[in-house]
Amino acid sequence: MYAQSMPGLLPPPSFPPSLPVLVQEWNKSPASPPPLFPLSSPLPPGVQPLCPPVAEPERESRQSRKDIGARTARGAAAGQRGVVSASAAATEHLGEGMARMLEGPVPEESEHRSQGPCAGSCHAQRLLQTLNAYRLSGTFTDVVLRAGGRDFPCHRAALSAGSAYFRSLFAAGQPERGLAVVPVVPVASEAPGAGPGVAAAALAVVLDYVYGAGVRLRAEDEAAAVLALAERLGVAGLREACASFLEGRLRAANSLALRRVAAAFSLAPLAERCGRVLRQAFVEVVRHADFLELAPDEVAALLADPALGVAREEAVFEAAMRWVRHDAPARSGQLRRLLEHVRLPLLAPAYFLEKVEADELLQANRECRPLLLEARACFILGPEAGALRARPRRFMDLAEVIVVIGGCDRKGLLKLPFTDAYHPESRRWTPLPSLPGYMRSEFAACALRNDIYVSGGHINSHDVWMFSSPLHTWIKVASLLKGRWRHKMAVMQGQLFAVGGFDGLRRLRSVERYDPFSNTWVAATPLPEAVSSAAVVACAGRIYVIGGAGQDGVSINKVQCFDPEEDRWSLRSPAPFSQCCLEAVSLEGTIYVVGGLMSKIFTYDPGTDVWGEAAVLPSPVESCGLTACDGKVHILGGRDDLGESTDKVFTFDPSSGQVEAQPSLQRCTSSHGCITIIQSLSR
């Protein structure tokens, strides 16, 4: 009808109700050739439809066709009655429906047709299914891909649409454009462990994905080969499918192999999950052959992880020795490097004596002797002799805890009797036995051989008490020679040093040294200048006394340093402040100073004799608790600028330079003891 009214124009689309109906109508026409692959026929074996089939609509009735004809005639008549625009003149014989399609928005009737169930996607998926069926049957294929001795007939157009590599290969002007057979074995063989069979299987999976047939993976090596091939061929989307499959197959037995795959293809989520499995199942991981094939750098990095899920350090030592003994002649030279990451001071003393010191490989290796001597010193003198390697790993039953002892209440009127241990990882407080008999303030507290010592104080200023970690009780030990308070203690060479302080009449130059094996105090070389309320800390084999109140009660900025080798005191670079009521702690060779109602954290490097500023606190504080735990500096309680005790807690992380607020203390306190020891979490 349209062709007769406007010669030379193609008839408008009739929008058949569905593609299968059109094929059926075409098959009925005697003039049309039989279809090579009618869409209404069953798909070849193995090809599954990707979406439910669209229900075939009923055929139009004669009456509906008459209605369409009537509407078309009315539209043509309306177009002849006065439409003078150029578009109307050009379309006056096309009918009202076609005129609306050319001149205005799509009518609701047309919109409704395009919004049927998966109308667009089903059509595209049917085309992909048909194209994949053509590939599997070799119909219309124009190129062959060869891998692992197998040929895969394909369509250049489909390969170019799904692969950036083939799009470039078949582009105009490329010499490979006319190749009938394209080998892809060298590409697939780059995957870890990929042989000819794996290469062919990988190419089959990639082609299934390109042709819309989905992804079917069976094993980790196949997924790795597919991943390598997809990366080289530039097949977008297949990378995520392979990574998801590998994550689902992750186990302790294959975690090392999959970590290599994740590193090779920059799969960050997979690498992170592999790392978690390696840490949590370390004991099982090291039993498998993959561990024995690791490079020295990989073994060292694994042993150094502070979050290894081991209950005992013996498991880490045995893993290191198993790796070395797998090829002892070639690997004995790595012993020192690996043992640096084994926390020998955490071994049971009997195990250390029988299994470590008696080991023939270790006895023959002179480079390992300093590490063995350090461990032995820790057993005798305490964890302070090898602070870094004496620190428990995160998931051991042992952990570093912060012990808070006594102190003054908010107004400074009451002396608190409480002793509590805080585990920063779990943020859990545990009560410990309180100091027996009395309460005190302005005492000194320190840890020696993982026991806590408390000396002096405003009341009973000669007394010294020891909290025994193994016995979980307080024991009274030898008293100070000179009663004192507002003093500090430090540990060096396995002995306690009580430094300076106040005896009620004057500030003291007196220094005393305590030997825990003989339970005796002896007088040591006195300070050059008497001080009280100074910061005292041991670092790099020396004792540093920073600031404090001088004999006249005026705060000073002097730094007095004691060298035990020369048995004498000397002055170092003065502090950038003159304050008292200070606290200091040593962490990895750097001294951190807080207090004196200063809002800054100051640092001092003993090696260079240089002062610096590390960070700013939210508020000034003095007479606070200061300790190092889990590689961070912890600031607990203290007095604020109004003279009241606070319950605030802050941590400073030297690696990031950030100060963070932490959960508050159980009560406000100042002038208290604050010490880090190692304790069993199951106690």
Task: Extract low-pLDDT stretches.
Answer: 1-117, 186-194
What is the first-to-last residue Cα distance? 96 Å
CATH superfamily grouping of the largest domain: Kelch-type beta propeller
> How large a portion of the residues is in β-strands, by DSSP E?
15-25%
The proportion of residues forming helix, as a percent range, comes to 25-40%
Largest sheet composition = 4 strands, antiparallel
Pfam family, one: BACK
Keywords: Kelch repeat, Repeat
Protein name: Kelch-like protein 35
InterPro entries: BACK, BTB-kelch_protein, BTB/POZ_dom, Kelch-typ_b-propeller, Kelch_1, SKP1/BTB/POZ_sf
Structure write-up:
With 683 residues, the protein is an alpha+beta fold. It has 4 domains: 1-35 and 68-106, no CATH class; 134-245, Potassium Channel Kv1.1, Chain A, CATH 3.30.710.10; 282-386, Serine Threonine Protein Phosphatase 5, Tetratricopeptide repeat (Alpha Horseshoe), CATH 1.25.40; 398-680, Kelch-type beta propeller (Neuraminidase, 6 Propeller), CATH 2.120.10.80. Helices cover 32% and strands 22% of the residues. It contains 24 helices and 27 strands. The strands form 7 sheets. A 4-stranded antiparallel β-sheet has the order 6-5-4-27, with no helix packed on it. A 4-stranded antiparallel β-sheet has the order 7-8-9-10, with no helix packed on it. It has a 4-stranded antiparallel β-sheet with strand order 11-12-13-14, with no helix packed on it. A hairpin with a 2-residue loop joins strand 11 (488-492) and strand 12 (495-499). It is elongated and about 105 Å long. Mean pLDDT is 82; it is low at 1-117 and 186-194.
